[in-house]
Amino acid sequence: MVSAGADANRFLRHSDFEIVGVITQPDRPRGRGQEVSFSAVKEASLAANLPVYQPDKIRALEAEKPLRELAPDCVVIIAYGQIIPARLLSIPKLGWINLHASLLPKYRGAAPINWAIVNGDRRTGLTTMRIDAGMDTGEMLLQREIEIVAKQTAPELAVSMSESGAPLMAETLRGLAAGIIAPIPQNHAEASYAPMLKKEDGRIDWKRPAIEIYNRMRGFAPWPGAHTTFRGQSCHVWGEPVSKERAVGLPSGAGGGAPGILFGEKNELFVRCGDATVLCVSVVQVEGRRPVKATDFANGVRLKSGERFGDS
Fold it and tell me: Minimal CA–CA distance to 183: which of 97, 243, 258?
């Protein structure tokens, strides 16, 4: 049985797997028009003539009946978004098998991909695990390391990880059925957490070094993004750190090296960051307006000496 977020099409390609049903989130309004539409999971499932169940809450008693009637060998669960109640965990004989986007016990929680990039990690990975009553605390089954390449954003890393996820899950299920996988308890003392993202996470603290700000831009794309203020208005900013050697050669501008100070040099826009580092700004989007090149932004607002991001 497959739960929401799993790519049912990939499992359908394997003749040794029989999907007896799919559980996914209820249909919800989507897009600007807020029209109710099917998720990709539901569309794929209906195209394959699979039974689809969409309980509002998986903990509700009415969600338990189809699970017990179907009596699946296991339930594959990926990014379902709800905690599975303890009374359901024993229904499948092989358990509820989750695909988590980190090398557990590192980055338990809702946003492991984002926080791995934010923290400047060079490698991350995937873990298949058997769900228990805790939050990502169950026994580990298989793991696969994945490189975080330079400049990769959270959506790009998610695509890369999804390509490895289905094969790893298939390998896990076959290993469990054959009895050749020995579950490994997590070392809870080594656990770290990747909490759900909040809008405030994207607020840029210009006292941070430029590389940290850049990592947050990559990790918080597309939401909450990296945002600051200029002349009291909220704006989203994108850019890259300037090399240490070049940063030393740039003029300090009015305000010296104060974090957030903006200055131009040879048709480029720069902002001073913490630890005497510099970020080269490429795109600015003032709230309610379209994104523009940083130099067009500077020319449009007639940037004055000593003005800064984060001014309110």
Answer: 97
As for how many domains the chain has, the answer is: 2
Neighbouring C-beta atoms of residue 83, cutoff 10 Å: 13
Query: Is residue 84 within 8 Å of 97, Cβ to Cβ?
Result: no
Please identify which residue in the block is written with the tokens 């131009």: 264
Burial of 153 (0-12, 13-18, 19+ CB in 10 A): middle
Tell me the pTM: 0.92
Q: Quick one: how far is CA 213 from the chain centroid? A: 17
Tell me: do 163 and 89 sit in the same domain: yes
Cα separation, 85 vs 61, in Å, equals 10
Instruction: Give just the sign of the alpha carbon dihedral 56, 59, 61, 62.
Output: positive
Q: Looking at 190, 208, 238, which one is the last position of a domain? A: 190
Q: 209 lies in which domain range?
A: 199-301
Tokens 């040794």 locate to 16
Does 239 lie in the same domain as 183? no
Write out the H or E segment, with its range, that includes residue 62.
helix 61-70
Q: Are residues 153 and 51 in the same domain?
A: yes
Per-residue pLDDT of the chain (312 residues; tens, 9 = 90+): 555 444 555 666 777 889 999 999 888 877 677 787 888 888 888 998 999 999 999 999 888 999 999 999 999 998 888 889 999 999 999 999 999 999 999 999 999 999 999 999 999 999 999 999 899 999 999 999 999 999 999 999 999 999 999 899 999 999 999 999 999 999 999 999 999 999 999 999 999 999 999 999 999 999 999 999 999 999 999 999 999 888 877 876 666 679 999 998 888 999 999 999 999 999 999 999 999 999 999 999 999 999 999 976
276 and 295 both lie in a single domain: yes
Nearest alpha-carbon partner for 66 in 52, 83, 80: 52
Q: Taking Cα atoms as reference points, which of 66, 111, 116 lies closest to residue 92?
A: 66
